[in-house]
Amino acid sequence: MYRVMKNLSIRCSKFRCAAIFWLTSAALFTSSTSALAGVNLLVNGSFEDAVSFRLNDVESWLVAPSSTAFVTSTNGRRGPGSQSVSFIGNQSTQSTISQIAPTMAGQNYTLSLAVADFTDGNGFGGIFVFWEGNQIFAQEPVLPGAFFNYLDYLFPVTATANGSELEVRGYSVSMDAFSLVPAAVPEPGTAIFGLAAIGGFFIRQRK
């Protein structure tokens, strides 16, 4: 890359070289970002790495004291595998699990999860989702009639720091298929075409 840019600097004006440099850099950045799309940054988001029916032992997730959370294969599932996580209790005895994802400050992400009622479909439970300390979702009661019939939810979120905390609180609710992936970016060809058009415009202005 260095040798190519050096040869270009001999043949081009400073302005044209700068345009080519930024176009190349943008293309490389877009390609690398696209490669990361679809990679789940949450560890054990489908709870397959945890031992079933072990109270407050949820592999790779931090469980708050006094919680009543457990992983089970009998409460249905939404994601791959056979297990999900459930909270028991009521409004005054909520459970909390959390995880810090390896995010990059300023990057946009898509958070997804699946939620199901844990109380025979009578809509008693509740769930509250927090991103970097801010509540982004609340459902109380959980949609009635959804007894182990998982409903999917998507949330666009932005990281304000390198490393973002996802916290989930609730009671009488089952959850599965947690995922955090970088937001989609334009395909490299699309980005290059747009940037090339802008660069060509400015180069023509310089002639």
List key phrases describing it.
3 helices, alpha+beta, 207 residues, five-stranded antiparallel beta sheet, Jelly Rolls, 25% helix
Describe this entry's structure for a reader.
- With 207 residues, the chain is of the alpha+beta class.
- It has 2 domains: 58 residues, no CATH class; 121 residues, Jelly Rolls, CATH 2.60.120.260.
- A hairpin with a 2-residue loop joins strand 6 and strand 7.
- Helix 2 runs antiparallel to helix 3.
- The longest helix is centred in the N-terminal third of the chain and has 23 residues.
- The protein is globular, with a radius of gyration of 23 Å.
- About 12% of the residues have low confidence.
Average residue pLDDT:
77
Placed side by side, the strands forming the largest sheet appear as 1-4-9-6-7
Please name the fourth-level CATH homologous superfamily of the largest domain.
Galactose-binding domain-like
Shape: globular
CATH architecture heading of the largest domain: Sandwich
Uncertain ranges: 8-12, 17-35
* Helix and strand sequence: HHEEEEEEEEEEH
Q: What composes the largest sheet?
A: 5 strands, antiparallel
Cα separation of the termini: 27 Å
CATH class of the largest domain: Mainly Beta
What portion of the residues fall into strands of 2 or more residues?
25-35%
